[in-house]
Structures
1.
Amino acid sequence: MRWFWISGCVLILAATTVLPGLAQRGQFQPRRPATAFDNPPQAKDEEEQKLLNVLAEMRKGPRYANVSEQDGRLLRLLTEATNAQHVVEIGTSTGESGVWFAMALRKTGGKLTTHEINPQRAQIAEENFRRAGVDDLITVVVGDAHETVTRIDEPIDILFLDANPEGYTDYLEKLVPKIRPGGLILAHNMRSPPPNPDYVEAITTNPDFETTFLLMEGSGIGVTLIKR
Ligand SMILES: C[S@@+](CC[C@H](N)C(=O)[O-])C[C@H]1O[C@@H](n2cnc3c(N)ncnc32)[C@H](O)[C@@H]1O
């Protein structure tokens, strides 16, 4: 009886302290039942299959805060659904989100301009884009995006913010005038890590914007429409 009581206490202690800590650090994944919601993306043609294969390979290598598969699928979906012609990304890293965008841009006939401050990551991204056969759709701009975005001289259909969160409001100020009416701002990391409150304030209090937050999966994405 005593042992039963002690092992019960140990189990409760583990469930309430150790396991959530490990889960936070990504070492322990609490089990949840697999559902149809977890089904992987289904390739419609060979090109899509090739890009999904490259993404799977990329996920096996070193990753630097790249988007989750769920977030990547959302980027592709919104880009294709809006028939985007010019996507601008802040924060290329090694190019996973870039490949998701390219999957849609192949269909819309559009292109991606992506900005990265770290030259080594930019180089890996360029190699990945070549490997995926989408380098013709993507321009990688190396440098501090606070400066490099000031050189953008074409209208933007989708702006994807996925770099230093403290810089989101500066990117917003510099780039909103270049986003076409009806275009979108997609802001990554709206759930985890905690978002920049000034940015959240800016996109939720301006009558020119309609914003919603998709926070159930991945790191959370804020979707802001530039009203017509
Ligand atoms: C979260 S990662 C981007 C992940 C990428 N979008 C993906 O899903 O594959 C953020 C990247 O932003 C870059 N970054 C941070 N500050 C930046 C700045 N001021 N200008 C350009 N890139 C910056 C970092 O070097 C890092 O590679």
2.
Amino acid sequence: MKLLIIGPQASGKGTQADLLAKRLGAPHLSSGDMLRAEKKSGSELGKEIAAMIDKGTLVPDEMIWAMIKKELDAHDAWILDGYPRREEQAEMQDKEHAPDKVIILEVSDEVCIQRISGRRICDTCGRDYHIKYKPPQKEGVCDVEGGKLVQRPDDNEEAVKKRLADYHAQTEPLLEHYADRLVWINGDQGIQEVWHEIEKKLGI
Ligand SMILES: [Zn+2]
């Protein structure tokens, strides 16, 4: 099965993609991981893409697609995450590697904001916490070495709202594009509940 998985930050997309990969015996291909691997490999394509990102120029669709296509060509089944981002990219991909199904993890903005703005990290060891879902034993203090728990600057509510607005604007046209292949999943639930809904709706 060839699957795309779409969802906002903190939707649990990576976790569900890993569960799917295990169940289906297919690789979880994340565009972010691919980009890092391509840069690390030192290939011409990797160097070009890295240089553009460093300069802050937009990497042309053809280059991103060349990188993604290489991976998709190598596998009969896959779970792709993080790509495509725009309708033009989806159209380009459909010609050669059309996904069979597109999973959309629907998470309310309220839940996303709660999940992200409650995150804290230890400024000493980097361990992560959540004030509601994964609290430390003592408020504001790391369980391991007593480091101070801080919030990443871009995890504040205003920044999260901005990212969510961008996500919605970017995703709407994609959802229209994939209307005939969409599998809607309620991502407001816990990890296990989300997984059961995916299993059931895909019949896997
Ligand atoms: Zn710590």
